[in-house]
Amino acid sequence: QVQLVESGGELVQAGDSLRLSCIVSGRAFSRYSMGWFRQAPGKERGFVAAINWDSRRAFYGDSVRGRFTITRDNAKSTLYLQMNNLKPEDTAVYYCASHRHPYGVATSRTVDFDSWGQGTQVTVSS
User: How remote is the C-alpha of 55 from its chain's centroid?
Assistant: First the structure.
């Protein structure tokens, strides 16, 4: 049984930084591309960032490119999201997700991910 557990969300002020973590168990983490998504109240879940299983490719949503960085530590089965220069519009529940296929290419589509964490709340005050 695959489990993904996010942590690191909290209330911060605009301009602050946060690092989210996602620990994965029950799956060979190093074989799976991973992603971060977020959902604000009243909005659909949207793409934030994704990274291939081997870290050779990472890409970002337009609204976070240049401010957020996705990384992974395969030895620790952990995915990270470094968020800098946070803005009030970044307020959302952040979810990590594991691609449904081993060695599948990272994408921005939720349908390509079959395992999700419970989410961690990030709130950015102005």
Answer: 14
